[in-house]
């Protein structure tokens, strides 16, 4: 089976720009370890979550296309992000006091009992971090609505629904667009690819507008995010691809095609909402501190733009299969 190839294995090896400073500040040994690739939008979801929640971690840069055996032992899917999580050993009479919250314990014997366990899949990781680091005085507001009442359960489900929309509609459309080459015209044209991406983005931002309306009716404050004033996991899920749309402008004829201000016709309201959201994304520290230099993204995404990558995402897109 085809797999990562030379263009994947020889990509630039480390963070640059703002992301380099953030990575440098997280080099020392820590119980929580983020195995990352600087270029990877799925990793960026995790990285933003860690920053947003003020969680201490160690940043470990790897090239996931090398399929290092030690890395495959942690994550048999061979994908970044992978999180190494210090998990306490099951409680026995010998360590009955060894509580398990790595946030609070300084107990040496409890530390000794811990094992590094892997968690992977960017959304699973984000939910784990939000749930485990739940002390809002240390880690800020929850990224998914919390609470046991039926309203909170509904709001959580609604967030997960739109997280699913982003992951199963917007993200695949992004790759279909950027991996389009003229040879594919028989299967789908660049205009088809553009139409699909814009359609799925419009569906999402129309939902945000509808939620704004609900909030207004309830007298709640308006704000730029999916949950109004409150930044959430839904925003985190979309941000990395929003920040990579410029690559489609760079590589593809006629670009992404999001209309300029005042030129959106009947969709003007939706695109105004997008602009309001995206403007705030670019002001958010937890986000911008994970961005490498623009030219490095241009370089690393050339293998997608020319459809030469053997990455799992690239192969899935080429083969019309679901994303890894
Ligand atoms: N579903 C995974 C996707 C992660 C993913 O595809 N990561 C890419 C880098 S952006 C990777 O590790 N690719 C290695 C490969 O394709 O072999 C997630 O959400 O974490």
UniProtKB/TrEMBL annotation:
Residues 15-24 have a biased composition (Low complexity). Residues 1-24 are annotated as: Disordered. It comes from the Eukaryota. Residues 1-11 have a biased composition (Basic and acidic residues). InterPro entries: Glutathione-S-Trfase_C-like, Glutathione-S-Trfase_C_sf, Glutathione_S-Trfase, Glutathione_S-Trfase_N, GST_Omega/HSP26, Thioredoxin-like_sf. Residues 152-311 form the GST C-terminal domain. Gene3D superfamilies: 1.20.1050.10, Glutaredoxin. SUPFAM superfamilies: GST C-terminal domain-like, Thioredoxin-like. Residues 30-137 form the GST N-terminal domain. This is Glutathione S-transferase.
